[in-house]
Amino acid sequence: MIKPLLALTALLSTSALADTLVTNVNGIQAGSDGQLQHFSGLIIANDGKVKTVLAGPPPPITFEHTVDGHGQTLLPGLIDGHGHVIDLGFYALRLDVTGVQSLAEFQQRLRDYAAAHPDTKWILGGGWNQELWPVKKFPTTADLDAIVSDRPVVLERVDGHAIVANSAAMKAAGVTAATQAPAGGEIHDGVFVDNAERLINDAIPKPTASENDQALAKAQEILLGYGVTGVGSMSTRVADWEAFKRAGAAGTLNVRLMSYLSGTESMTAVPKPTGWLYGDRLRAVGIKLFADGALGSRGAWLKQPYADKPESRGLQFHSDAELLKLADTAASHGFQVATHAIGDAANAQVITVYEQLSKKYGADRRWRIEHFQIVDPADIARLAPAGIIASMQPTHQTSDRLMAEARLGPNRLAGAYAWQTVLKDGARLAFGTDFPVENPNPFPGLATGISRQDMNGQPPGGWIPSERLTFAQDLYAYTRGSAYAGFAEDKIGALEPGKYADFILVDRDPTKVDPVSLGNTQVLETWVGGKRVFERAPSASAAPERGR
Ligand SMILES: [Zn+2]
Prior knowledge:
Blueprint: H1 2-16, E1 20-23, E2 26-30, E3 36-39, E4 41-44, E5 50-54, E6 65-68, E7 73-76, E8 78-83, H2 85-93, E9 95-96, H3 103-116, E10 123-128, H4 141-145, E11 153-157, E12 162-165, H5 167-173, E13 185-188, E14 191-194, H6 197-201, H7 209-225, E15 228-236, H8 238-250, E16 256-262, E17 282-290, H9 320-332, E18 336-341, H10 344-361, E19 367-371, H11 377-380, E20 388-392, H12 394-408, H13 419-424, E21 428-431, H14 442-451, H15 471-485, E22 503-506, H16 515-519, E23 523-528, E24 531-535
Parallel strand pairs: 1-6, 2-7, 8-15, 9-10, 10-11, 15-16, 16-17, 17-18, 18-19, 19-20, 20-21
Antiparallel strand pairs: 1-4, 2-3, 4-5, 7-22, 11-12, 12-14, 13-14, 22-23, 23-24
The structure holds zinc ion.
The site of zinc ion has 4 residues, from loops.
């Protein structure tokens, strides 16, 4: 019985892999020349790659499979240049306090979650942002103890640069009132900032392999529902990498991951870049480093003191020599280097390190700066000559603008979130969200890219509107730009012969709607390698389950 069945399966799969015609679509993509291209269909070969991009009616031949797009808009799959994949899954599975508007609401969510999860030994989660609260004060240990005192609670700030812990968590971690914050960190009233986070985090039981697998599956479900088919997977822990490999081997990795391992210490487990694995679904391409903290917790390292904390310039994570050594170590093993830098001093330091390394290693190492948020305008012009890519997140601009004004004052924002200046100065831009710091939905980011406004249309006219992009530049950054930033432009980022048929069908034409409508775009179908991997249920009009 077994042999004939196998033969039949082989026959079926052969016929099922014949060319596919996708026709009757309003195809739009960013061309290699930076202009928008319009097309009407695709022919997809049996290897999942584009064979032909059709400008007019389909050729008069019979295809094994025909997909009628019913005139719907088709875009290349969007590539988030910077996201945290496993964390996205965990955030969706853990207590999510994103967007809560007061301490009382924060406490209510904790009370509800604790009641709903009586067996969860450590209550973990995050997303709080005291900047949204009437009293912009960090939550404290006492605020948590009042709700949950019988088991540890650790809740992360929305930017990941601070956590608040209850007494049970501090006891489990062996932290007392006498505990000193390590260099590059701070402790106050149960809030642990930047390097001090590990005093608590090191005590949290590590997720099991199966918990990591669940988180990865959840993250993929969220990403594909938003039309994200590729990710620059940042700060990949070795356990994350193992989960990615398990999914790759099982054939369940549908989002293509360009992985940047967490720090040079990961090189003991993954000593070299891997090249593409599992049918071009996974690749270890780089090492992620940090130069400073974030603006929300005043951990971003600034050239001048904070306007709202004049005794501080933020946190410098490494001396120049240390950062050079770390980046050089990664580069000497063939890794691309991606360094987090938010403040203008941190950005200047990273640029100086990359300038030295670009002389040592020559062209096309694609040095990446992650976030590139607050930059001295004089330093932006230094990117292009050293081949440095600005990996930026447009929704950070809308989330952070009022805080950036408070932290820096009005006169130090000329190089803040300066997308158009980056391009004008000849450098490359990659767009993403930094999920789960921001929601992974790419469309609000694409909307902000052209408007410098949030989803409520604020502020009128856009924030520093000279930094707005055209839609062609914007889409380019979210497709070709992010592919290039991950050394993947030969495979993804555009629908062209020889590249993968990773594409999405959406419910509106982004070139014909206003920015708020663009931001509300719904993904109808997501295809990866010529196969449909997400289809919106016909009745569902709401967005897929939110990540953070
Ligand atoms: Zn990040």
